[in-house]
Amino acid sequence: MGERAHPDVPAITPAMMFLMAAACGAIVANLYYAQPLIALIAPSVGLGTVAASLVVTLTQIGYGAGLILLVPLADMVENRRLVVTTLSGTVVALAIAALAPSAGVFLFAALLIGLSSVAAQILIPMAAHMSPDAIRGRVVGNIMSGLLLGILLARPFASVMADLFGWRAIFFLSAALMAGLLALLRWRLPQYRPAPGPHYGQVLRSLVTLYRRTPVLQRRSAYQAMLFAGFSLFWTAVPLELASPRFGYSQAGIAVFALVGAAGALAAPLAGRIADRGWTRPATFGALASVAVAFAMAWAGGAIGSVVLLAAAGVLVDFGVQSNMVLGQRAIYALAPEARGRMNGLYVASAFAGGAIGSAVASGLFSQGGWSLVSQVGLAFPIVALLIYTTELFRRPAPHRA
Q1: CB within 8 A of 201, min separation 6: which ones?
Q2: Biggest distance spanned by C-alpha atoms of the chain
Q3: Which residues does 291 contact at the CB level (< 8 Å), separation at least 6?
């Protein structure tokens, strides 16, 4: 008999699973709305060309801080209240961004948007608590598919909205959406109160110990950091390649290309089912290898000017990254139910750090060596992950771990 769902919270239903998946996608999309709009936002609020990248950087910093400072609270306080409180901050932050009269006000809002958008990473371990062991991977995979769709659709949606109504419209609209989502989650989410445990300061201090003493968490974090670096590198640089004279794509064409990559979200439920069957180790190799193959295809696509190869590479990158994300979450959620919030925060923070590196170097690589150099560096990320993976060959298999 596998582990049952947490006895103090109702078992998850298909309707609740759909609500959580949609909520995670809508929440995490807030991190990406500004990225394609920097050229519009910066002059409007008085940001210079050099400082314009702070719009994205401060959002990333805020999200990273939230993963470490807020997500561990899921192991301490009632989860529904934590989600609602965090989302209230998102509503306020989006409203400030929409109305921002100056650079300082907008950058403060960007930081707060990142900090409060970690509500999605509170919902995912909560769903794990609501799921019996036999289907936990499937549940996490379904919810993560919603999250990935939010990431992939946010940029093209923001571009279209800004084209039609101006850049402030996307922040007004999202603030209204988050307010409605907040009310719905407060009404529909069950209460989940963790068992009494350490105080907040002790929880934060425990993060280092938890990471150091959990080899599975270390390995899964390393794999996902490498793959997410490749993911961010690809999706930050490919619009530059598509807009170059070789392809000559308009902003609308680039938005359509991004929609093709959304097909990679189909990987999450599949990966969850595979993990539930105990096939995490071979599936991990497949996920890492698929990202390596994707960058080889992207390299070839750029060399011969094939948008079909680039699109196929984008789908494969998303497929591998999303599969590995779910496999990792399934593995770490099986370790210590009382520490799921902290482990999820550490795991996603590691992935996000890799993603930040990938996006930070993308434009520099493209300007120095074009798409060829971007593809070469992108290929190096999954190769490093595969080298780390070879250590698995010398370990005895353990169900739902590795």
Answers
A1: none
A2: 61
A3: 227, 230, 231, 316, 317, 320, 321, 381, 382, 385
Distance CA 225, CA 246 (A): 31
Q: Which two tokens stand for residue 49?
A: 């060309």
Instruction: Look at the chain and count its residues.
Output: 402
Token match 């300007």: residue?
Answer: 367
Please say whether the dihedral angle defined by the alpha carbons of residues 202, 86, 154 and 331, taken in this order, is positive or negative. positive
State the virtual CA torsion across 350, 353, 357, 358 in degrees, nearest 10: 60
- Report CA-CA distances (Å) from 57 to 32, 205, 355: 11, 26, 12
Range of the domain at 3: 1-197
**Residue 286 CB partners (closer than 8 Å, separation 6+):** 320, 323
What's the CATH code of the domain at 215?
Answer: 1.20.1250.20
d(CA 35, CA 29): 11
Radius of gyration of the chain (CA): 20
For the chain, the 3-state helix, strand and coil shares in percent, each to the nearest 5, are: 80, 0, 20
pLDDT category at 335 given cuts 50, 70, 90 is confident
d(CA 221, CA 348): 8
**pLDDT tens-place string over residues 142-200:** 888 888 888 878 888 888 888 889 899 999 999 999 999 999 999 999 988 887 777 78
Closest CA to 37 of 178, 154, 177, 173: 154
Check whether residue 188 and residue 216 sit in a common domain: no
Note whether 105 and 13 are within 8 A (CB). no
Please, are residues 87 and 181 in contact by the beta-carbon 8 Å criterion?
yes
Question: What is the distance between the alpha carbons of residues 49 and 57, in angstroms, rounded to a whole number?
Answer: 14
Same domain assignment for residues 371 and 235:
yes
Question: Could you tell me where the beta strands, DSSP code E, fall in 280-370?
Answer: none
Judge whether residue 82 has pLDDT over 80: yes
254 and 391 in a single domain? The answer is yes
Number of domains in the chain: 2
Examine the fold and report which residue of 197, 219, 241 is the final residue of a domain before the chain moves on: 197
Q: What span, in angstroms and rounded, lies between the C-alpha atoms of 256 and 277?
A: 36
pTM reported for the whole predicted model? 0.80
d(CA 24, CA 217): 22
> Token pair of 275, please?
């993990």
Separation between Cα atoms, residue 341 and residue 125, nearest integer Å: 6
Query: Mapping DSSP to helix (H, G, I), strand (E, B) and coil, where does residue 142 land?
Result: helix
